[in-house]
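Notebook B, p. 112. Complex prediction, attempt 2.
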Amino acid sequence: MTKELDEIKEQLEKHFEEGTGLNDLSPADLAEHLKVLKRHDEDEYANYLEKLDSQSLGEVAIEMPDHMLKDLIQNVPNDKIAKAIEELESDDATDLLQYIEDIDEDKAKELFCSLELDSQKEISKLINYAENEAGAYMQTELFSAKLDEKLSSVISRFRVMKKLGEIENIFQLFVVDKNGILCYAIPLEDLIVYDFDLNLENIVKDGGVEKYKPHAATDTDDISEVATMVKDFDLSAIAVVNKAGVLLGRITTDDIHDFLEESATEQIYNLAGVDDEAEEEDTLFKAGRARAVWLFINLITALISASIIGLFDKTIEAYVALAILMPIVASMGGNTGTQALAVTVRKLATHEIDFSDVKRVIFKEVSIAFINGLIFATLMGIIAYIWFGVSLLGVVIAISMVINLFCAGFFGTLIPLVLKKFSIDPAVGSSVLLTTVTDTVGFFSFLGLAKWILL
Amino acid sequence: MTKELDEIKEQLEKHFEEGTGLNDLSPADLAEHLKVLKRHDEDEYANYLEKLDSQSLGEVAIEMPDHMLKDLIQNVPNDKIAKAIEELESDDATDLLQYIEDIDEDKAKELFCSLELDSQKEISKLINYAENEAGAYMQTELFSAKLDEKLSSVISRFRVMKKLGEIENIFQLFVVDKNGILCYAIPLEDLIVYDFDLNLENIVKDGGVEKYKPHAATDTDDISEVATMVKDFDLSAIAVVNKAGVLLGRITTDDIHDFLEESATEQIYNLAGVDDEAEEEDTLFKAGRARAVWLFINLITALISASIIGLFDKTIEAYVALAILMPIVASMGGNTGTQALAVTVRKLATHEIDFSDVKRVIFKEVSIAFINGLIFATLMGIIAYIWFGVSLLGVVIAISMVINLFCAGFFGTLIPLVLKKFSIDPAVGSSVLLTTVTDTVGFFSFLGLAKWILL
């Protein structure tokens, strides 16, 4: 541990000495290092926190788990935090203020009031978007011009804005009409090769009107659709407009990255009955409690399956082999269903399938499950016969496996589709629902058939 | 179906009439539409395939599943395919040639030989990288200059390269020394505001040497680490250098997007026992076969658990309640383990944890599992007592649940860490291994304790 601490201190020293460059630490690294420091050496932690300039402070604060952010807003003076918020791009500033609001509403209000009027306006606009809307991921800082402007005057304006630190990470110039409606997007790589005496209209004509037609998202679009668009068209940034086509802001690829990674984590966690937000906290309690909720739901479904078994207690007493074999039927069903479920959840998330494909998707999944059901039913029928020497037992387990794997394929596909149809995240709770089906059908078909055929 | 077909034809018509712009289709959309067309109307399909220019043909071909690509290389003349490969960026050209090689080695050789010498050289370099190396994701097309060049001459060169279509999606100029070693990366947004009579050295000095120090990946770096770097530093593109620091190429964010999405899909699929590459095919057979392999492995582990139950057949005959309750112990263990497993697999993939954190991660996961184990063991003990009226049965199930959930947390964390240590994808097979542990421990502890305490 001391070795790790020393290493961290050394890295932090280097970072603060050398500034940006090959050896520097990302905001995420800084937050991580500060987290470890805080655990072991509060003084050193406070010392390095002090060293962060307002730019870095904001970027690091966004990456902090709640308990560290809470500590930060209690110990760092308001004016320094306000300055840090100002330095962030508008989307990040809004996020940070929202995180602070979740912890301490009054503090967030205080901070908001101490911001410049412009920032207040921007944040007020952005804060109203729902979590999954494109607007929530958009930054209002962008570089735009009118069609009749001369390139040289556009560049002069750009130079001033850059000097003032108003914009950064600019890849294209958005061209708007007099009503602010987005008309074109011209990449900087195209602008830089033109004669600066030309006006934008000439440039658009020369390059070809089609070429500069912009890809744009509407502010209320679902961010997952925007991410798909950015990915499919290999965009470096995408314009965001309102329903009337007025340019409001832009979404940069770093936000798309964050979205892709976070939503994949969310899917994997939700499929496993884990809450992604609770896991981010550093405390065991929140994560443990969120997991306990899913375990509780699972306990209830397990009790339902158990009560199905309970219906057949006399059958099991007569044939104890049934107790030995029944978990196999349930387990194979669960696995087959999970395969169909994972594929459906993921393809829905990446927009590879939608409701127009429902029949084809269900047909495909059920076919695979049914064919594998036939194969493994035959195999397991033979094994059961050899193991217990009762041919009818082999028949019973084979039939029940075909039934259960067929249902597994069907419900593994249907459950996420239905959840999606009701606008519920298809990854949430679908595993538990599916297991309930495969366990219930598995135990009921196996024990029911056994009672009917064997006794 | 006809309605869907008509819609697709209409969209394709629009695309080919209007060219790029708001209504256009991405290469992925085009491939998807062509796939549906091919299924229902071979003539129309051939007709639209014909209409693709060589630029689009290459981009669409990359998105095609194997059987369509196979059809394409059989029906489209070699020179048109070769031209399509030439038009792609070097990383995509290499990928496409590799896909073709997987289908028809001779055809790939023919195509390779008909490429221009420059393209041949570039592809030969890129094709040698392993799938997970940064080099495999890199394109060799980039914009670089020497430190003593005048900005105006750099821009003139850039203008010519753009006219020739040699480079696109350029966001920064890489500055190299006389040995080709990467020194600086200057964003276009900075270049465009400088006086073109300055030379690059002045610009770097004016902007600040620290500011232009480039982030770079080594060509043999693992792509997942590069993706984390791009994400953490919000980069729009990252330079790739060799071990000596010589600039080789760059990786753009679209490749990082693809990587993030593909690796998330791979993790979700692998956790569920699904092979991501087999699923991409349009045929049921390959996907079904790959899934059958995992079901077979699961059958073997289920047989192992069943044979554990078989050891206690006399105990179950004496107490049929055991058969009713035993799946609950196994199911709760499986779920608890899956929670720990999903969190560990995902955090390893996103580099949130590494081997230096092993103790802390295991401690956290085991603690959560153990505490939840205590809670649900108590609850289930009471339920079992009320259900069957045997207090010792409640004690037995409670103890076995604590044991099983503790093991579930421990092995759910340990299994992916060990797989990773041996350089095996932590998502592959870990679910099956885990279920084997939780089923075996669950059945053995529950039935063993029952035999010991109840009989």
